[in-house]
Amino acid sequence: MGLKIGMIGAGNLGQAMAAHLALEGHEVSIYNRTKARVDEINERGGILIEGVLQGLAPMHLATSDISQVVPGRDMLIVTVPASSHRAIAQLSAHYLEDGQAVVLHPGHTFGAIDFFAALEQKGVDRDITFAEIQTSLLTSRLTGPARVNVSAIKNALPISVFPADHGFGRVEMLFQVYPSSIRAPDVLKTGLDNLNATVHPPVTLLNLGQIDRAEKFLYYWEGFTPAVSRLVEAVDRERVALARALGVEPITIQEFFSTAYETKGEALWEKVRSNTAYSEITAPTTVNTRLIYEDLPTGLVPYASLGQELGVPTPNCRALIQIANEIFRRDFWKGARTMRNLGLSGLGPEGIINFVHTGKRP
């Protein structure tokens, strides 16, 4: 029997996931803040999915009213940018119900904990299992109104739950639809294996002159030079040290590129620049990009803040944050996923590990 699923967000991934799950026999309702996107789905009579998945998938409901999508659903899948997770938690707080699962797709670093903390601040106490997926299950792109192309379904993608002691029962459907997914031990593993935070800020900031001039270039193949690679690897060493301080054995960025793609060469920059999956990915043409606005507050900032909590030095993470603060004339620490905002301040490594498994603080 299919589940009742609420999809939060009707962008590339939201529409692709909504269509795929509907074609799998689940009752899918979809919410989007912008009504125009919802109108397109209703006018077409569903979402047309093409590529490796095919069909016109009718939606049970498409709406810009979140109160119509949250109650009565078995599972909510949140596909908005990670920097909007807290806002979605606040919008949906009083509509959530005991027994539901909330899946952050993807979670970036500590997304499930951030969602939980936002509900705590709203005074909402529900029996909810939160899950986060390390990155997008589907490689997808909107090609027209209510029309999405899926070019690939990823293999071996980790999924975790919070609190970990809840187990995977409420999100088991994801493993049935995507059987190559991996059950990660907890959100520390998925959160500290967030390689977007390791790669995007240094590559973007060190190529910002070209981006600011709106010059077209290949983001990875041309922007990921040997010199840039050295800074990326320095940030990655800090991420790895943080993970090991919490008993997590992370995948290193070198290991990731050696196993996830067909690449050549020994050096990281050689692996990245020989990856054919990156051959057509161009750089943003504006400095106002989610590669900064998302990956700092939900990636580098939690890394640097965790380092301060654990006594693990993160000088490169902190330097990149400070440089971005000056360039973008904003404080990326403000409202970000700091240990204080996540409710993890003062817990220490044992307290943090206990919290991600039980959802309880000392």
The structural class is: alpha/beta
Please, what is the CATH homologous superfamily of the largest domain?
NAD(P)-binding Rossmann-like Domain
Percent helix among the residues?
Answer: 40-55%
Please count the helical segments.
Answer: 16
Strand line-up across the major sheet? 5-2-1-6-7-8-11-12
Number of structural domains: 2
Radius of gyration: 20 Å
Counting DSSP E segments of at least 2 residues, the number of strands comes to: 12
The H/E string reads: EHEHEEEEHEHEEEEHEHHHHHHHHHHH
- Can you tell me the CATH class of the largest domain? Alpha Beta
Low-confidence stretches: none
The backbone outline, from C-alpha atoms, is globular
Average pLDDT for all residues: 94
**Largest sheet entry:** 8 strands, mixed
Residue fraction in strands: 15-25%
- The CATH architecture category of the largest domain equals 3-Layer(aba) Sandwich
**CATH fold title of the largest domain:** Rossmann fold
How far is it from the N-terminal to the C-terminal residue, by CA? 40 Å
